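Hey, can you fold this?
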Amino acid sequence: MSDETIGRAPAWTVQIAIFVRRQLWETITVRSALPKSQRDVRLDLFRGLANWLIFLGHIPDSILAWFTTRNYGFSDGADLFVLISGYTATLVFGRMMVERGFLIGATRLMRRVWQLYVAHLIIFLVYTVAVHYLAHNFDVPHLMDQFNVRNLMDHPVETLGEGLILKFKPLNLDVLPLYIVLMASFPPVLWLMLRFRNGVLIGSVLLYLAARHFQWNLPSYPAGVWYFNPFTWQLIFVLGGWLAVGGAHTVQFLVRSRAALAVSIGFLIFGLLMTLAQPIPLLRELFPVALFELFTPNDKTNLAFYRVLHLLSLVLVVVHFLPSHARILSSPALRPLIKCGQQSLEVFCVGVFLSFLAHVVLELTSDGIIGQLIVGVAGLWILTTIAYYRSWSKRVDKSAHHEVRAAKE
């Protein structure tokens, strides 16, 4: 409908026509904004970094946690992992929906959910058996309570049933269930996002605010709620998707803005000082008590808004100083991180298990700084080895598949 035709139509039809035209234009814009299939190495780099940070941060009572971002700002590896997961899921399955239809995209997405669920069950079983075995055979019974598996031993059938529906989770096995829930609920969200990306983002913000206000969360077993509240953490996941379907182009002016860069750097410095003020009393004196209490404790369960701002500030700074064509991205020094990002699921699952083993090794041997550093480096080496092996294995399988197909033809 042309502008001249719209001008002669009744007022109510004009509004409908304008709305439809805007939505059609937004749909075309969203589809054209989806990047080509070329892989952005930065996504792999920072997804690998997130996995490394999660591994180091999950080793309790060690100096290794000081090598993670959680001690230097409001957000940490989990926030980064969820944001990149939303971005990559939208790239992969959004393009599939655009090119092959909703049914194909949705079923492929749910197949990925099934893979995540199976991976969670495997690590769940291996993890709980390992905790039980080491606790009883090396006389460290407190591990049962420390890693939240005592109830599994007291009520095995009931607890396993609750574990199957993701209500029961041992310590440090919270991120993957969150990812499963977010991905399982994503097909209709993605369909809407490809048509009304801004409307979906607004809805996500409203759900986030309502969940925080009304304290919505999913129940855990045997008591309590999910450590990562899916009703609030969905905001970061949707933000990642929104950036993938054109939001990144919308806010491109912020990346080029010196004022936005200065504000982002300022907020990162503020987050650094505020976070360090908790273990360092001298720094605490820099802030008024009322201001300090606003950020203490750092609300991770319900995703405090300052965590989101901190993550977005970090993203803006990184994108500004590290464009996709930066030469450093091809540096051999970054290859281990990139490989770990490319094989993210395997690295994440192994990393969770290794963090538990690292804690046990330190407790049974020596928990000195040297021992902690050795365990940390060894764990990162194992994760990198797993990533390179999986990458090689997939290439072999792909080559064998092509050979078999060629032979049949």
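Oh, and this one too while you're at it.
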Amino acid sequence: MKILIRSAKIIQKGTALNGQLKDIFIENGIIRQIGEGLTLEADEVISHPNLCVSLGWFDMRVHAKDPGYEQKESLYSLEKAALAGGFSEIALLPNTKPTVQTRESVHYLKKSGDLIKFHPMAAVTLKCEGKDFTEMIDLHHAGAVAFTDGEHPIQNPDILLKTLQYLTPLGGVLINRPEDMNLTHFGQMHEGFVSTLIGMKGMPRMAEEISVMRDLKLLEYVMETPFGTPNTSQPLLHFACISTAESVSLIREAKAKGLPVSCDVAVHQLCFTEEDLLGFDTNYKVNPPFRTQTDVQALWAGLVDGTIDAIVSDHNPQDEEAKNLEFDMADFGIIGLETLYAVANSYNIGLSTEDLIEKITVNPRYILRLPIPEIKEGSKANLTLFNEDEEWVYKDIVSNSKNSPFVGKTLRGKSIAVIV
């Protein structure tokens, strides 16, 4: 098939083509020509006002509900939601039923994507219960792109330490969402003025920050031992969904020391605060919880200065039975695949278009040790086409679940097509 993209602004930081308006001709999945005013015959011509093109977008934190919870999201509906959001590749958490902890489960997910690539992450511990290790070496060779207990923060420091030691010679990466769950039992939202005002059990900042401190200390210990000679310069430890100003500061200091660490932020954490929960709308119930404006500003500052490497959706579909309940009984989580770019672009504070795109294209692939595509003649096409200025109302939800606080909101920036 021959595809001709007309007058697209190329967004690829650090390349000679960045910011240039070019035609791109793709034949049988290969970028054949990049130029101006190309007069080639094509089966499909893509032309759109204010058209931009970048590397295919990559979401490195998606809750796969299939197998086990297909009523919330099947792999088929997940793929449709990812395409609607402009993603050509997504990384899947292991919290399915059964858990992704065998070669067979890794292969099942790898082979399931028809139009986009699914990258399975494997569990650190059996059933993500934090007790006994999975066969990490076997899972690594089977194609698991990272190791994490996903929704379940690793509580046992010995488990985390040994995992770092196991993964160092493999050149693997451990992903942990920092939370000391002894401090968040029965918590519903951020611990602060609003939780006190409305009588909700709070989840304090220090539950996250203590975990970040602990994990960084363990990482530092590993790097000082004979285990601490990683195969690559890439991160060995990755923090998922950080949410506080102190977490940003701690990770910034760790990077300045040269520790192999990276982190991401869930896009919805960049938009809302604890005050948005005053209406008891369960679509705002997430973990980590929405915190304060000070924290939001610190997260944006961390994105601008490079402390925060990636923006993720933390796409977590929940059906009506899990969300249409009293606030304290509802499950955590919102969907975000379809809106990640538009939300980040709409609420953007100080981040250039090039840097924003880099945090959903290059950086996630680098962290996960995956090949980074290129926009150049002779390369395989892995592209997302989008309009950074188009305004639209989020209402036609593709996901099986509808738990989003952005429904009905006007967003700026929209994906147009994915070519992979």
